[in-house]
Fold this sequence. Notes:
Strand content: 25-35%
Keywords: Methyltransferase, Transferase
Protein name: Dimethylhistidine N-methyltransferase
Structural class: alpha/beta
CATH topology of the largest domain: Rossmann fold
CATH superfamily of the largest domain: Vaccinia Virus protein VP39
Mean pLDDT: 94
Number of helices: 11
Largest sheet: 8 strands, mixed
Organism: Cyclobacterium lianum
Pfam families: Methyltransf_33
GO biological process, one term: methylation
Amino acid sequence: MTTNTFENDIIEGLQLSPKKLYSKYFYDDRGSAIFQQIMRMPEYYLPECETEILQHRATDIIGILPQAGYDIVELGAGDGSKTAFFLEALVRKKKNITYIPLDISPEILAVNKNIVQQKLPDLCIKPIAGDYFETLEKITSRKVPKIILFLGSNIGNFEGEKALDFIRFVKNFMRKGDYFMLGVDLKKHPRTILAAYDDPAGITRSFNLNLLERINRELSGNFDTALFDHYASYDPISGATKSFLISKIQQQVSVADQIINFSANEAIHMEVSQKYSLEDLDQIRMQAGFKSDHHFTDTKSYFSISLFEL
């Protein structure tokens, strides 16, 4: 990702009304380190719930899969530590699998391969580095049935109809009998959700403010992060969790030689994290053109791994 792209997106977003920054830019080295802290917060239930499903419901998931072998294609694979539980279960059930992790970062794919190979030394692993919007076509040459994984509730980062558009996009690279396996955060009590996105220790606040600090470092910005506050909201009807940074005072900020004006209490929209009901997922599956779905939840019904069959 070039500095120019980063700069253009930041300036464009700050000149919008309302102002908006893009969550994909959260994850510089500092942001990634803070996010690892978020993943360990007791209030941030998502990783624990998803891991529980992958550990304890994997046999149920595999029982639906009729073929002897599959390519396991993972979008935004990260370090693969959670996925390894599912891969181990597939190997135990004598499925002939090849693991194809896709991620924009070659470095994290090297970590992924090391973690998975430590658990499954004989597994064939074929990492593909790059933006999966561009690299997905590389999987179409193989004629093996596929299970495409999109875990970690990453689908929640797509606003409104964009989630459906994304699933339809992925479907373009699938054939009849393939599966799309989706990790989804479910609607639940609003206070449970808000605690995960506005924790008492202020870690999520630091995560959001770090993007302003990154702008300062990389784009000669002069944000004073003490003059901004973090605010999270959740709408239990729509399921939209949103985070904002709020300007405490009227102020001017310089970014890449551009002056950005803020009024007192003006918001910057930072991120959306969409929550779904199982009924919502049934509707998405039908609208996307998959023939069936199966939902596997944790014991609290906080999270679902949903399997869509083409």
